[in-house]
Fold:
Amino acid sequence: MSIEVRKIDADEFEAWDALITTTFGYDPRREDLEFFRNRNELDRAYAAYDGGEMVGTAGVISYQMTLPGGAVLPAAGITAVTVKSTHRRRGVLTAMMRAQHADAVGRREPLAALWASESAIYPRFGYGIATEAADLTIDRRHTAMEFPAGTNGRVRLLTLDEAKATLPALYERSTDGVPGTLLRSDPREWDAYFYDPENWRDGASAARFAVFERDGEPRGYVRYRQKPDWEDNHPNHRVRVGELHAVDAEAYAALFRYVFSIDLVTSVEIFNRRLDEPLVWMLAEPRRLRKRVYDQIWLKTLDVAEALASRRYAVDGGLVVEVVDDFDDAGGRFLLEGGPDGARCVPTGRAPDLTLAVADLSAALLGRARFGQLAWVGRVIGDHEAVRRAQAMFSWPVEPWCTVHF
Structure:
């Protein structure tokens, strides 16, 4: 069997979209088709063909990702990956990944990122878990907060047009410097954010938006839904918080207080939050906040030297790192010298202090994976001093986090 991988033509987009929706178990809708056509980049949409039959899909959304220290690098956002069940284990996905990575390298994108539908798929292509998140649930009866309520601000609901005008600048301010953040600089990202068809709501309301303002200045916002439910004529409603960002603790607490005070609600569900969620330190009963942790961004470092030179490091130090990449040509031996004020990373012939797979380097790039743990389980090879130095350098005080799903 000969598989051909190429970019699709404009008149193939509907078939491309239909294969994606069918594989993920959805029925294609005309309205959603136009939405996806607008969000996807046609010149980065690939398909695999067996003869004339489309048997696989893969797309890329062009992003900018924040690294520790605030630098921003281009990142290929891998998305819409499918293979027909009739063509499993025939090298279809491998061929598409090679094409996408080669295209990203040609565009000088040092990183490739994705959300994995299954965690067994992508390590063989060099991807490691770079960010994690948690879904939180709390009974409204246990939402009392010990953080003092501010007196100079207010929360108010926004119309959709007001939200479109207010949220982009607030998102940029509140996520500035957070490793793993994807910039929403392309207007298509905000079009996707505000797209809210009824069939995507799982029985809940349309998205609602509220903003916290102090002295007339927006300081944070929340996007949420209400899901009504009645049991024996008593309200058992749920609030589902999809996103909450704030530039300071007062705004953050005020927005959660607002969510916790919505009428008829018995439970609050809070999705896609950082692992070190500040709410834990504000609740009077923090144990009542139930948490489910999962992986978010899987990252592949396509240009090791540029990625390592672009981020900042917690302490000054130097390492020779040997990176093994069995899929692409991203591996090699690199001399890294870096600290809080800058870094340089160049190929070298010197003996390595540490050896690790590119997937594990990618997992550590944003500060999530710890070199000590990776070494303990045999994923990093090196002496104790080199491992300790790497862990001290790569650690970062801000937990990596991403709230853009693609």
